[in-house]
Amino acid sequence: MTLGTRVRLCLKDLYQQDIVEMIERETRRYALESIEHPDHPDFTRAYQILWDVFGATGEMEPESAIRQFLLEDSFEPLPSGTFCRYFLIVAKDRDGNLRGVRDGTVLYNPSWAPDLCTVYLSHINLLPQARGTVLTYWLRIAPVELAVEYLYQLQQRGLVQLPLPDQPGKNFGVRLNLAAEMEFFSPDDRLSLQRILFYGRGGFDVIDPRHFPYRQPDFRPPEVIAETGNRPVPFMLLLRRMGRERQARLPIDEARITIRHLYDEFACFCTPEFLQNSVDIVQARLEERRAKGKQDVELLPLPTGPTNLQRLKRLFRYDNLRRYYADVGGASDYLERIKALLAGNPRWFDDEVAALGVELAKTPHYVYSSRDKGIWAADMANDMANDMANDMANDIANDIANEETPK
């Protein structure tokens, strides 16, 4: 006899105003503000919050560069014709304490594509008090509002002609792409899985590194680079093509403009000779594909939970570094360590991913998106956990090996 059961909730049952009220209640905990000038009282602290995470690894611009970004006229295009609007967003709790920071750049070049805008999500850091809260999601999408406002301002000043200037609800006819960088997945780096799941659940895909071997530039000072050599960082580039998240292919022309947008931003503070080689590698790989009669590249879906962790196989850091980044230094220690693990156990990757799936599946979900699939997905997750616990790793390994990344 069962005395009680946990009730699951279907999101489709919520009335639209219910959703608005729920979101309003959550957002009251925090206030987001865009810092527009380096004299802002929170600028120094905000920069330090980002530097604490990204500075030591050479992934953060120097403070002088960030100050200059805020002082520059965003309505004066770069020599290439790209309009560039840097943003630094801070989140505060009700007592005025900083709880999170996000920065990035809105990039738009009407001569390249009047209907395409790239929103580069550079860095994000939430302080411990705000981790695991709704703030993570707001800092991921807040730049969209700034991008739409920026496009409107460009139009109002007569600097651009937007495709649909009277339709802000359709982003004035401009396709918005959110771009983010991330290290490739490695089973021994559990934080990499957390980040991947975060972006996977947010509608992001990875541009196939076979044809888009992206590198983040070396952000260290030029004098340091001169002493140690240029060290671009091999990252995968994630895209959320807003309103087109279910499309599994990225046109080559759109991929080319994306890399040009990003490297226009980097050229604002990086020495040009340290950038061009990385751009040329990506552009050449895209043109090689076009020469074969292909007009697009694949977008690799990110995993969103325990039922599709097989997607991690194509994101394995070890394989991608060996195949597409052999010319990039600084990874020899990692490659040798993983090589030794695989030599001792050829199934090391598969076993580690299976164990991660078991851990993820231990927490069942009681909110689902649709009765057509969500409730069954929850049941499947529970079944998967039981299967894995009963030593089904071999089947999972076969799934990983045969995965063709459907969308």
Low-confidence stretches: 380-407
Number of strands: 13
Using only C-alpha atoms, the radius of gyration works out to 22 Å
Helix-strand topology string: EHEHHEEEHEHEEHEEEHHEHHHEHH
Number of separate helices? 13
Order of adjacent strands in the largest pleated sheet: 2-3-4-5-6-10-7-12-11
* Main sheet record: 9 strands, mixed
Q: What structural category arises from helix and sheet content?
A: alpha+beta
Taking the alpha carbons of the first and last residues, their distance comes to 43 Å
Instruction: Please bin the fraction of helical residues.
Output: 40-55%
What form results from the Cα inertia axes? globular
- Beta content: 15-25%
Average pLDDT taken over every residue: 88
Polypeptide structure, described:
This protein has 407 residues and is an alpha+beta fold. The protein is built from 13 helices and 13 strands. It has helices at 16-27, 43-54, 63-71, 135-156, 190-200, 222-228, 252-266, 276-291, 317-324, 332-344, 348-361, 374-389, 393-402; strands at residues 9-10, 30-35, 83-93, 98-108, 116-126, 175-182, 205-207, 215-216, 233-234, 236-241, 249-251, 296-301, 367-368. The strands form three sheets. Strands 2-3-4-5-6-10-7-12-11 form a nine-stranded mixed sheet, sandwiched between helices. A two-stranded parallel ribbon has the order 1-13. The longest helix is centred in the middle third of the chain and has 22 residues, at 135-156. The protein is globular and about 75 Å long.
